[in-house]
């Protein structure tokens, strides 16, 4: 983005805490991307090394891939173009090939956006604390100087397809060949799951699995003509829910635009919460790790997942570790703890066997395996993992967020509760009957409430009491 007064570039509008996101033609352009590609190589010292570059189905992605590759090659990196990829395909490639890489995606954001997710070799995330600020500063310098520096030997640009290797690797982690036959509706939302689902779960590249895949919106279209590729919003699940019931399917899967998150609905078309999916996958990963000799496998969960998650982990002989919300925190704790698996309430799922990175497809495969190895419907299986009643995330537009939290604290003063401040404020009844968390948004005037209780009546009472105070 340029300033008219002094014609200097300031990229702070598009460089976020964990990635780059901007409006195409305004805060993200081919000129900016070329400079970022050069700065990526120089900041991470990648001259003479392989750099992987791919992107999603957004109309601007091909031009941006080319520009980034050009900037990176000018500074001496040997670029391999992965072309159309999901975000977890980038993580696979960075891990399996031990190379740094970047993918162009704005995830679930509308069509006018694009962005860059970057990773170091081994799929280590790059955030503002681990190199993103330095990449931004150097890119701004190159843009303001009007040229990427010459010198050194330019790198090469070649093409590499990783889809088949990615698919085979996931199938090696979860063997689905022995599953009972399942009918699976998949809503790709016109995003990258339209490419990865036939490769991983279908027979596009590998032998057929015992699944009948019913495709919804598999056409890659970055204008998102059917609905936004954001399954976190309930209205974006409606087509999937209707299709599951209409086709008499066993399960429905919905992916976001870059296919790193996966949401699940049961055979009745009812959503299975990401907390229940976390519990279901945790149970499988604990059993596998214990069979391989680990005494108390570590499972990460953020503080907004259901209380059922840590209870189940302990019951199965694992060790739960609670973290703040956000993938950079989860990935860091995954590495520190040697955790086998991690789950978030937002349907991001992280795996040690996937270089501690998040992958919606691998989580979906675990759910298919859990469903396919027993005879009952998903609604019954899921109920085992959802013993409590949750409010979901409720936003209140409040300017004085700290004042609202203080009013809630004052109202509950003297009651038999505990309060912790790991991420926002979590209020918990000491008898275990309910808890709620209030978190201020860092970017919007929102105070976010998540509440959970042993039954619907208690949850509604707690939820309504807190909202009345917050919105007073």
From TrEMBL:
What's one Pfam family the UniProt record gives for this protein? PGM_PMM_I
Needed cofactors, names only, are: Mg(2+)
Q: Where is the Alpha-D-phosphohexomutase C-terminal domain?
A: 393-467
Record key words, sorted: Isomerase, Magnesium, Metal-binding, Phosphoprotein
Q: A Gene Ontology molecular-function term?
A: intramolecular phosphotransferase activity
Q: Which InterPro entries match?
A: A-D-PHexomutase_a/b/a-I (IPR005844), A-D-PHexomutase_a/b/a-I/II/III (IPR016055), A-D-PHexomutase_a/b/a-II (IPR005845), A-D-PHexomutase_a/b/a-III (IPR005846), A-D-PHexomutase_C (IPR005843), A-D-PHexomutase_C_sf (IPR036900), Alpha-D-phosphohexomutase_SF (IPR005841)
GO BP terms: namely:
carbohydrate metabolic process
Q: Where do the Alpha-D-phosphohexomutase alpha/beta/alpha domain residues begin and end?
A: 14-141, 165-269, 281-387
* NCBIfam families in the record: PRK09542.1 (NF007088)
Q: Which family does it belong to?
A: Belongs to the phosphohexose mutase family.
**PANTHER family in the cross-refs:** PHOSPHOMANNOMUTASE
* UniProt name for this protein: Phosphomannomutase
Protein's organism: Arthrobacter cupressi
């Amino acid at each position: 983005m340029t300033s008219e007064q002094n014609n200097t570039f300031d990229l702070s509008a598009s460089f976020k805490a964990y990635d780059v996101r901007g409006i195409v033609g305004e805060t993200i352009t081919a000129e900016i991307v070329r400079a970022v590609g050069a700065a990526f190589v120089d900041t991470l010292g990648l001259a003479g090394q392989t750099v992987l570059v791919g992107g999603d189905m957004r109309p601007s992605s091909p031009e941006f891939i080319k520009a980034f590759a050009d900037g990176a090659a000018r500074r001496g990196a040997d670029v391999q173009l992965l072309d159309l990829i999901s975000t977890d395909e980038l993580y696979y490639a960075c891990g399996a090939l031990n190379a740094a890489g970047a993918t162009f995606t704005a995830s679930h954001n509308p069509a006018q956006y694009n962005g860059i997710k970057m990773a170091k070799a081994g799929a280590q995330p790059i955030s503002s604390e681990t190199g993103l600020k330095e990449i931004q500063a150097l890119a701004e310098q190159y843009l303001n100087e009007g040229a990427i520096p010459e010198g050194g030997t330019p790198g090469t640009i070649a093409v590499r397809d990783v889809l088949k290797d990615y698919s085979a690797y996931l199938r090696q982690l979860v063997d689905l060949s022995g599953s009972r036959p399942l009918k699976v509706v998949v809503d790709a939302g016109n995003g990258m799951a339209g490419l990865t689902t036939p490769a991983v779960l279908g027979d596009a590249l590998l032998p057929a699995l015992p699944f009948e895949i019913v495709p919804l919106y598999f056409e890659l279209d970055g204008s998102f003509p059917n609905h936004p590729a954001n399954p976190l919003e309930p209205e974006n699940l409606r087509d999937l829910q209707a299709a599951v019931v209409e086709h008499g399917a066993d399960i429905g899967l919905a992916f976001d635009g870059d296919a790193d998150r996966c949401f699940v609905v049961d055979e009745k078309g009812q959503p299975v919460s990401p907390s229940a999916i976390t519990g279901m996958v945790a149970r499988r990963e604990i059993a596998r790790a214990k069979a391989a000799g680990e005494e108390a496998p570590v499972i990460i969960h953020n503080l907004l997942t259901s209380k059922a998650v840590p209870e189940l982990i302990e019951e199965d002989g694992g060790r739960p570790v609670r973290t703040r919300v956000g993938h950079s925190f989860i990935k860091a704790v995954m590495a520190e703890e040697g955790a086998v698996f991690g789950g978030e309430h937002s349907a991001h799922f992280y795996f040690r066997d996937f270089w501690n990175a998040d992958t919606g497809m691998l989580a979906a495969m675990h759910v298919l395996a859990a469903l396919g190895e027993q005879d009952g419907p998903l609604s019954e299986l899921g109920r085992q993992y959802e013993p409590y009643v949750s409010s979901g995330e409720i936003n209140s537009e409040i300017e004085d967020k700290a004042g609202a939290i203080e009013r809630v604290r004052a109202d509950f003063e003297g009651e038999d509760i505990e309060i912790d401040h790991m991420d926002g404020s979590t209020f918990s009844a000491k008898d275990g009957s309910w808890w709620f968390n209030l978190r201020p948004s860092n970017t919007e005037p929102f105070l976010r409430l998540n509440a959970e209780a042993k039954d619907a009546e208690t949850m509604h009472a707690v939820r309504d009491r807190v909202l009345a105070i917050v919105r007073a």
